[in-house]
């Protein structure tokens, strides 16, 4: 199926045909007879233990209170920067255009912390706004003039490679600048301590579906979806739903999005695609992107897609329908922000497995 996407991508852009790992519970028979209270018997079905807490940005259960500040990292998506490190552990990834029709990622971490993340790239004002919505510590290496002005004014707590190149940020030998700046989470926490940033408070929780609601997710069937930026295979995003895993795998330019070090794939539970106005603001091709007005969107969950709307709620881009928040499937979320011209219908296409 994936090869079919690549061969037909130019045509598919013009058509919309709507047609962390799970714990395994195993049991072994024993000679010893164990009496089981009648109320514990559930017609042969094993009930999953309900954990007392949830991570705020994934809705995944946890034994302990999910403390810890969100950390938002600018990650390079130039083909020379792939595969990246750390993306598979991000709770939420935003993908937006930078200049030159190249997309860039803002990876937000709270429930898990990779050992190393990168390559780290430069800040843009609209990425700063998104990071601010989660009260994140913002990590970047470099900045646009608009972003620098915001950072200089202390708009958001941040660590920047311009200041800490060679100390907190390290240059990898296997890549060339500007695609070789990396930072470890150990150094992020060292930098936060150095700057006296408070790192204990977790972000406010998103809205998640419960188990029965997940089982009843509705929409049009689509085993694959493609988001293409300016008809470029280099920066398309193809999401294929793996029925066995119950999650989406992501591909770009024919390659599985996976971790550079471990090879573990990025596995996603929610794909949220929103359209909004983009404007070129200077000779370098930098953009102004409207992240406040709301608009049309597609939401993909459990191998289905449906039309919704997006709103900016307290700085977060979230799905709504008929004025109400749409719950997310517990797990990881990827958010593609695309220009309203050409818009969703010309940029996004779906396919149903034959």
TrEMBL record:
UniProt cross-references to InterPro entries, sorted A to Z: DUF3048_C (IPR035328), DUF3048_N (IPR021416), YerB-like_sf (IPR023158)
Secretion signal, residue range per the UniProt entry: 1-22
Domain DUF3048: 57-198, 237-335
Protein name, UniProt field: DUF3048 domain-containing protein
Keyword annotations of the record: Signal
Superkingdom, taxonomy of origin: Bacteria
């Amino acid at each position: 199926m994936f090869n079919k996407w690549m061969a037909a991508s130019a045509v598919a852009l013009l058509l919309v045909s709507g047609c962390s790992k799970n714990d395994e519970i195993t049991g072994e028979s024993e000679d010893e007879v164990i009496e089981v209270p009648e109320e514990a018997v559930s017609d042969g079905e094993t009930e999953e233990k309900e954990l007392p807490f949830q991570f705020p940005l994934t809705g995944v259960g946890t034994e302990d209170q999910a403390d810890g500040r969100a950390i938002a990292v600018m990650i390079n998506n130039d083909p020379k920067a792939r595969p990246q490190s750390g993306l598979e552990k991000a709770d939420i990834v935003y993908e937006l255009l930078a200049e030159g029709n190249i997309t860039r990622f803002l990876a937000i971490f709270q429930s898990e912390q990779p050992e190393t993340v990168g390559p780290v790239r430069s800040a843009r004002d609209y990425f700063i706004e998104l990071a601010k919505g989660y009260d994140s510590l913002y990590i970047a290496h470099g900045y646009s003039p608009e972003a620098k002005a915001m950072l200089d004014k202390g708009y958001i707590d941040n660590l920047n490679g311009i200041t800490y190149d060679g100390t907190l940020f390290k240059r990898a030998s296997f890549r060339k600048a500007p695609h070789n700046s990396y930072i470890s989470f150990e150094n992020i926490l060292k930098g936060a301590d150095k700057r006296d940033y408070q790192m204990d408070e977790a972000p406010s929780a998103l809205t998640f579906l419960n188990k029965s609601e997940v089982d009843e997710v509705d929409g049009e069937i689509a085993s694959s979806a493609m988001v293409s930026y300016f008809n470029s295979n280099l920066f398309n995003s193809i999401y294929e739903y793996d029925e066995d895993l119950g999650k989406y795998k992501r591909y770009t330019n024919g390659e599985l999005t996976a971790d550079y070090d471990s090879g573990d794939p990025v596995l996603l539970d929610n794909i949220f695609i929103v359209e909004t106005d983009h404007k070129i603001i200077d000779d370098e091709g930098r953009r102004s992107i409207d992240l406040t007005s709301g608009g049309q969107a597609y939401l993909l969950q459990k191998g289905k897609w449906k039309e919704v709307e997006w709103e900016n709620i307290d700085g977060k881009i979230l799905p709504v329908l008929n004025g109400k928040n749409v719950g997310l499937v517990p797990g990881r979320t990827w958010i593609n922000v695309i220009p309203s011209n050409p818009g969703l219908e010309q940029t996004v296409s779906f396919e149903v497995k034959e």
